[in-house]
Amino acid sequence: MIVSRTDLAVLKPFRVGAAEPWRFSVWHGVALLLALIVAIGIGEAQAQVVAGKPGIIATMIKWTPLLLQGFALNIAMSFLAMAIGTVVGVPLGLAQISLLPPIRGSSWFVTQFFRNSPWLVLLFYCMLLLPFEVRIGDTIVPLPGWLKSTIGLSLPVMANVSELVRGAVRSIPYTQWEAAESLAMTRRQTLWMIILPQCVKRMTPPWMNLYAILTVATPLTSVVGVSEAMTLTGDILSSEGRTELLVPMYLYLLLFFFLYCYPIARATIALEKRFQVR
Amino acid sequence: MVWTADQPIVRLKDVHKSFNALTVLKGISLDVMKGEVICIIGPSGSGKSTLLRCVNALVPINSGSITVEGQEVNDPKLDKLALRRKVGMVFQQYNLFPHKTALENVMMAPIHVLKRDRKEVEAQALALIKKVRLEGKEHVYPGELSGGQQQRIAIARSLAMNPDVMLFDEVTAALDPETVKGVLVAIRELAEDGMTCMIVTHEMGFAREIANQVYFTDGGLLVEHGPPKEFFANPRDPRTKQFLDQIL
C-alpha cells in the first residue's frame, strides 16, 4: 500500500470553511438535562447535612402535583395568548399590506407600538386597565387575573404575528403577483389563493419559535399575582422555610419549562431544514 | 366604436412610458392584425418587455393610446380584469405557482376567474397539457419540472383562459439550450392554429421562421420593421445592421 508518493513535505489543499459549523443537536439538549439533574442531586446530597428533615427529592415529589397544576395554567395561558395573538395578528399583518394608506399606516403603528413595548409593562397595563368583570347583554363575565394577563401577553404576540405575516408576504417574489394579475385574478384572489398559501410554510417555523418564547415568558404573570407555577414555587418555598430548597426548587421548575419547550425548538429546526430544501 | 376583425386587434399609437427619470418608450406605434405573429427584437434595455407589459396593463403608460379589440387600455376606468381575460402572457421566469401541481396551475384561473365548470375545465386543461407534450406530468409540482417543461405548463396555463392575444416575454431566455426547442415548438403550433402572438425574443432563427412581421426596437423607439425575409436579408437602418451583425 502506498501511503505517499513522495518523501517531501506536501502542502495539502486548504479548504475554506471545511470545519463543521457548530450545530444545535439533540445531544446538547440531553447534556443540559443531565446538568440539571446533577445539580438537583448535589442539592440533595448537601441537604443530608440537615438532620431531622425530609430530603430535597422527597420534598419535590410532595409538591409536584401542585407545581403541575400551576404549570398547566402556564400552558393554558400560552395556548390562549397564542390563539388570540394569531387570530388578531394575521388580519393586522394583512392590513399592513393594504393598498389604503390610512389602514396601512394605522396597522403599522399598532404593530410597532406593541412589538416594541416591554411585555411586563403591557401586562401591568392590562391588569390595571381591564375591568374585573364585563357585562355582555344580561350576563356578567368575570375577568380573573390570569385571563387579564393572558390578554396582556397576547398583545406582543399579536404584533409579532403581524410582522411575520407582513414579512412573509413581502418575501414572496413579485413575479407571483404579476403572474396572477396577468391571469385576471383579483388582488383578493391572488392574496388568498397564491400568496398566503405560500406564506404558511414560511411562517410556521418562526411562529412556533414565537410560541416557545411566549411559553417561557408566562412566568412574568407571577409579578402581577397570577397563581401559575412560578408563584406557586415561591409559595412552596416560603411555606417550607428552608433556604437549601431554593436552588433545587427553581431548577425543578426550569426543568418543567425545558421539557416542554425543547421539543418545540427541535421541531422548529427540523421544519426549517425541510422547508429549505424546496 | 365596435371592433371588427378587419381592424387591428392590438394597436399602439405614440406610446410613451417612463419610470421616474428613465424614459423607456419614446413613442411606439404598431398594429397587429388578428392571427398575425409579430416578433420584437432589439438590445436589452430597449423597452421590449415594457412594451408587452403595457399591452395587458401590467404597466400603466404615460401618454399615447393602446387598444385591444378596440378597447382603450390607457383609460383610468379600464376594466383591467376584462382586458387580461383577452390577453394571455407568458414570462421569462415562467412564474408558475409552486404550491400547485401542473394541472392545478392550468385550471386555477378558468375556475376562479371565469367561474367555469370544474369538469369542463379539467378536460380542457388535460388537453392543453397534452398539446404541450407534457402528458404524465399533470400531478407534478413545478419544482420537479425542468425549466422548459415549466415554461410549457405556463403556456398551457395562459391558453386555458382562451385568450385572443398571447404575449411572450423572452420565454426561452432563462432556459437550458436543450429545452428551448420544446417551448418554441409549442409556440409555433399555437401560431399555426391562428393565435395572435406578440413575441419578444432573442431567437433570431425562430423569429425568421415564425413571424409575419419583425420589429426592431432600440432606445425606446421602433427603428424598423418588415417581413422577416426582407428584414433579415436587407436591414435598412444602420442600428439594425449593427445589432444583427453582433448576433448572427
Biggest sheet record of chain A: 2 strands, antiparallel
Question: Strand order of the main beta sheet of chain A, please?
Answer: 1-2
- Net shape of chain B: globular
Largest interface pair: A-B, 18 and 25 residues
| Number of spatially distinct domains of chain B | 1
Low-confidence stretches of chain A: none
Instruction: Give the topology string of chain A: H per helix, E per strand.
Output: HHHHEEHHHHH
Radius of gyration of chain B: 18 Å
CATH C-level name of chain B: Alpha Beta
Given the C-alpha coordinates, what overall shape of chain A results? flat
Structure class of chain A? mainly alpha
Report on this model:
The complex is a heterodimer of chains A (278) and B (248). Chain A is mostly helical. Chain A has one domain (56-277): Orthogonal Bundle (MetI-like fold), CATH 1.10.3720.10. Chain A contains 9 helices and 2 strands. In chain A, strands 1-2 form a two-stranded antiparallel ribbon. In chain A, α8 (229-240) runs antiparallel to α9 (246-277). Chain A starts with 25 loop residues before the first helix and ends with a helix. With 248 residues, chain B is α/β, with parallel strands linked by helices. Chain B has one domain (35-57, 79-247): Rossmann fold (3-Layer(aba) Sandwich). Chain B has 9 helices and 10 strands. Chain B has helices at residues 48-55, 80-86, 102-112, 118-131, 147-159, 177-192, 204-210, 228-233, 238-247; strands at 10-19, 22-32, 37-41, 63-68, 71-72, 87-90, 165-169, 196-200, 213-218, 221-226. Chain B has a 6-stranded mixed beta sheet with strand order 6-7-8-3-9-10, sandwiched between helices. A 4-stranded antiparallel beta sheet of chain B has the order 2-1-4-5, with helices on one face. In chain B, β7 (165-169), α6 and β8 (196-200) form a beta-alpha-beta unit. In chain B, α3 (102-112) crosses α4, α4 (118-131) packs across α5 and α5 (147-159) packs parallel to α6 (177-192). The longest helix of chain B is centred in the last third of the chain and has 16 residues, at 177-192. Chain B starts with 9 loop residues before the first strand and ends with a helix. The relative contact order of chain B is 0.17. The mean pLDDT of chain B is 91. Chain A binds chain B through residues 175-176, 178-186, 189, 193-194, 197-198, 201, 278, and chain B through 56, 58, 80-82, 84-85, 87-89, 91, 93, 95-99, 108-109, 112-113, 143, 157-158, 161.
